[in-house]
Amino acid sequence: MRRVASVALPVTIHYSTIHYSLFTIHYSLSIIHNSQQLTTHNSLILIAAQSSHKISLVGITITFAGAVFFSTKAIFVKLAFAATTTDALSLLTLRMIFALPFYLVVAFVYGQKKGNVKISRLQWVYVITLGLFGYYFSSLLDFTGLQYISAGLERLILFLYPTFAVLINVFVFKQHISKRQMVALVLTYAGIAYAFYGEVNLKEINPNLYRGSFLVFLCAVTYSIYIAGSGKVIPLVGAAKFTAYAMLAATTGIFMHFTLRGNFQHLNSGSGLWWYGLLLGVVATVLPSFMISYGLKKIGSNNVAIISGIGPVSTIIQAHLILGEKIFFEQLAGTALVVIGVLLIGWKSSRTET
């Protein structure tokens, strides 16, 4: 092939694969970095750059849509509570019923792949434990909390989980915390405090505000345990396989819980509840998880982190238009601070990712 320039330029392209939690949704980033060096001619570089630009436009669009779909979770939950007599456990069980087949397929496909690495007993303990924290305890706390607080406040509190993951890495795994991360923590907690102050001062008094907020707070904590722990386990077992098995472990826990303590009459209350379960399982969980995963591969973690910041804003707008929830200044200002703080935590230097 004819050279366009007299010297071929060495180019290093860094690829980032991020494990994104499928249920709670909700904008969690657990990142694994791998790099591969490629050497090519300038003519090929130009073709690759043009192709990458086209793919990025598609990746941005799909990532944006995935973030919006994830933000519908709280809306569907609130609608289900308003339209039916269901409880959090019954609704969560229906969600898992519709999502389960997709993850069974993923687990089967990756289990049949050549070179599939067998998971050790200790790794199974980690996968199952993290799955229970991330998709069982966390989701049940979230759904229960949504019975008491607004969808907008729920989304804002839940969006704190990256900051908790940072604190876990600092105090448990003894990782260094940077000045940027410290600023991010201050911004996010100040934003939550200001938005919560606005909720407290609304004319409509909510006697369960503190109870619901505390439950969602615990949800964010348990989910951050999953995020921090998965970052240690995923390099050993693989992202897709870990996600599928963790989801299956959580599903087993939820089904056992419902078998022992669930109200089976709720499942026979009519087709309306099952439709909400379908929307939660597919529209608010499975579809956006695949869309975000596609975006991570095509546009990188930095861009996904920025676009995912639309999540709380999307929930607030949907809650206002669909649920009739009020939008007030403290909520908007607090949301802005939280989103900026989370973006600072997720943002990585352009020197390490292009």
Structure in words:
The structure is a single chain. With 354 residues, the chain is mainly alpha-helical. Helices cover 73% and strands 6% of the residues. The protein contains 13 helices and 2 strands; from the N terminus they run ββααααααααααααα. A two-stranded antiparallel ribbon has the order 1-2. Helix 3 crosses helix 11 (271-308), helix 4 crosses helix 9 and helix 5 (151-158) packs antiparallel against helix 12 (310-323). It is globular and about 60 Å long. 45% of the residues are buried. The model is unreliable at 1-55 and 349-354 (pLDDT under 50).
Describe the secondary structure blueprint for this structure.
Elements: E1 10-19, E2 30-39, H1 42-70, H2 73-83, H3 88-112, H4 121-145, H5 151-158, H6 161-171, H7 179-200, H8 209-237, H9 239-261, H10 264-267, H11 271-308, H12 310-323, H13 329-346
Antiparallel strand pairs: 1-2
Helix pairs in contact: 1-11, 1-12, 2-11, 2-12, 3-4, 3-9, 3-11, 4-8, 4-9, 5-8, 5-12, 6-8, 7-13
Quick summary:
The protein is mostly helical and 354 residues long. It has 13 helices and 2 strands, in the order ββααααααααααααα.
Radius of gyration in whole Å, from Cα? 21 Å
- The tally of helices reads 13
Structural class: mainly alpha
Given the C-alpha coordinates, what overall shape results? globular
Order of helices and strands: EEHHHHHHHHHHHHH
Biggest sheet, spatial arrangement of strands: 1-2
| Low-confidence spans | 1-55, 349-354
Strand content: 5-15%
Compute the separation of the termini in Å.
27 Å
Overall average residue pLDDT: 81
The count of DSSP E runs of length 2 or more, i.e. the number of strands, is 2
